Amino acid sequence: xxxxxxxxxxxxxxxxxxxxxxxxxxxxxxxxxxxxxxxxxxxxxxxxxxxxxxxxxxxxxxxxxxxxxxxxxxxxxxxxxxxxxxxxxxxxxxxxxxxxxxxxxxxxxxxxxxxxxxxxxxxxxxxxxxxxxxxxxxxxxxxxxxxxxxxxxxxxxxxxxxxxxxxxxxxxxxxxxxxxxxxxxxxxxxxxxxxxxxxxxxxxxxxxxxxxxxxxxxxxxxxxxxxxxxxxxxxxxxxxxxxxxxxxxxxxxxxxxxxxxxxxxxxxxxxxxxxxxxxxxxxxxxxxxxxxxxxxxxxxxxxxxxxxxxxxxxxxxxxxxxxxxxxxxxxxxxxxxxxxxxxxxxxxxxxxxxxxxxxxxxxxxxxxxxxxxxxxxxxxxxxxxxxxxxxxxxxxxxxxxxxxxxxxxxxxxxxxxxxxxxxxxxxxxxxxxxxxxxxxxxxxxxxxxxxxxxxxxxxxxxxxxxxxxxxxxxxxxxxxxxxxxxxxxxxxxxxxxxxxxxxxxxxxxxxxxxxxxxxxxxxxxxxxxxxxxxxxxxxxxxxxxxxxxxxxxxxxxxxxxxxxxxxxxxxxxxxxxxxxxxxxxxxxxxxxxxxxxxxxxxxxxxxxxxxxxxxxxxxxxxxxxxxxxxxxxxxxxxxxxxxxxxxxxxxxxxxxxxxxxxxxxxxxxxxxxxxxxxxxxxxxxxxxxxxxxxxxxxxxxxxxxxxxxxxxxxxxxxxxxxxxxxxxxxx
Length: 731
Known about the structure:
Elements: E1 5-6, E2 38-39, E3 51-53, H1 72-84, E4 91-101, E5 105-107, E6 114-127, E7 129-132, H2 140-144, H3 150-153, E8 155-158, H4 166-169, E9 195-197, E10 200-201, E11 203-204, E12 206-207, E13 212-215, E14 218-221, E15 247-249, H5 252-259, E16 268-271, E17 280-288, E18 293-296, E19 309-313, E20 324-328, E21 333-336, E22 345-348, E23 355-361, E24 363-366, E25 368-371, E26 378-383, E27 386-388, E28 391-393, E29 400-403, E30 408-410, E31 413-415, E32 422-428, E33 433-434, E34 438-440, E35 443-445, E36 458-463, E37 466-468, E38 471-473, E39 480-485, E40 488-490, E41 493-495, E42 505-510, E43 518-521, E44 524-528, E45 537-542, E46 548-551, E47 554-566, E48 572-574, E49 577-588, H6 590-597, H7 624-629, E50 656-658, E51 661-663, E52 671-673, H8 675-680, E53 682-684, E54 688-689, H9 692-695, H10 708-712, E55 728-729
Parallel strand pairs: 2-55, 3-4, 4-6, 5-23, 6-24, 6-25, 11-20, 23-26, 24-27, 25-28, 26-29, 27-30, 28-31, 29-32, 30-34, 31-35, 32-36, 34-37, 35-38, 36-39, 37-40, 38-41, 39-42, 40-43, 41-44, 42-45, 43-46, 44-47, 45-47, 46-48, 47-49, 48-50, 49-51, 49-52, 50-53, 51-54
Antiparallel strand pairs: 1-13, 7-22, 8-21, 9-10, 9-22, 12-19, 13-19, 14-15, 15-18, 16-17, 16-19, 17-18, 20-21, 32-33
């Protein structure tokens, strides 16, 4: 049994390869002609403004340049006063450099048509945290519980002396996309505070240390999970209260380590207990070190397995590495292992979004640094709003959640979030009305630091939204997740993501039979290889997702399939360049196979009216705008007496896999494609070469005149490589 798995952090630039590539025998460079971002156009500055804010201002002042107010709330009051006096048009609020401590600031319909911009030089920092000063030395009892350099390095802070209360540091709450504490009577809604040292998220003292994982030695008892073994569902699980949590086994070495912990109170365990796409956490109810048993308080939704990666956290004795902390929650004492000699230590206090635009329209937020909240940084429920030139980091939730139409998020840098980046929801699926929301020219990296699965850098939901010219790298799970219709993902660079999962994709969508019209084009996937024993996909259309189109993409160096299509009909993959993948293309027929052969996915497909078949009746797809826009939907049916008919929903009718250039140094096929995909669709003209030289490709992987690739695909459409990536760098 492997005791410990070390997950190396990779610091890769786009054109170099780190150690993580060593598990691949070959490595290919990125296209030479990718966009090189230019210096950003000059930031919009107010030559004059209606209201001025300064950290040195006075909320009793008039809000002029010479007499600014001190807080955003005071500026909002003046704004509303001007509206009451009859002022129309766009009002401008100039925010002078400095730090503003905010615990939730809201703009409503009264504040529409306003622009909030940085004024002059220097950063405007919107901070939801509380700074701590003058750390103290430990007493002898505290020192006796630590080991190594920690006995000299760790400092403590009395949170009560800093003016904080138990409501500020609170209790520990579950984390993980599949944490299921809500089914237990002990559940309490909330979000844990976080601690930052020199602007970086700290880790709650854990064993083993950051980027290392233990493995379950075995499972004594599965408890009452929702699914175990796979495809065996407990359909009444949602109604179950206090399900039996199971019992795990740890190795002798781990068991001996547990014995050294003086207290076993409030110790937690986090892991991917069965699937590596389902992370969750639970308090440890008790340890039985006589029998190497660990008793979790909550059951793992998908059961548990020997070899599953996990770690323990909130263990005082494991406060042994720079960047870790521990809170004595009963006494309000924070212990910090700092990362510098004179650290800046902050604790997140704000429980609300730092900026919230609620039912307001045409509001601009420009140039701010937002950090340190237990919620999302920005929430917009409105139309025509713009967020630009912002730096958002160190928030527990997402950088932004946007609901509405015609909103724009651009020229921002998003990093080190607990969840994801920018999640957009806009447009009406019933009538296929587009949302026209845009995420453009942004840099995303190191998201998903707390919730490590299903929290993308960009989420597009609804109809007619777009993500373009962004760069995304270094994350444990997917970069872009989308759902709905007519969304466009284009001109993005995505690299070194899905580091902690195998059954996951850098761009992912799944399970929707009516999600027609989505387009993924002109993106560059690069070095999506996974850490350790993870082997991810680049493009993943899961669980019979239908009606998708992908063309003109680069997929270079990926641990598993370049494109994985999990069944589905009317999915089109053409004109892409796929280089050095585990398999270039996988296209299965899981729905049909589940019905005809009781295949692995049978539980979702073989029962008429059950599983995915419940989607029938969701939309009036045979009439009106749906029939006009997606005429392919008119022929589909759910008649199990006509399983072989092309119109039977789970048959891959209309599949089109053609004109893709494939470079596979050690493969003799482009991948695995089900027989039914050939029967009901079109699979042709996907030439396979051993190298770019054999194919006759240039530095952008485009066919040279007279080359083998050009002869095989004379009509191959050149990918606009110079347009892929960000067009501008932030100021």
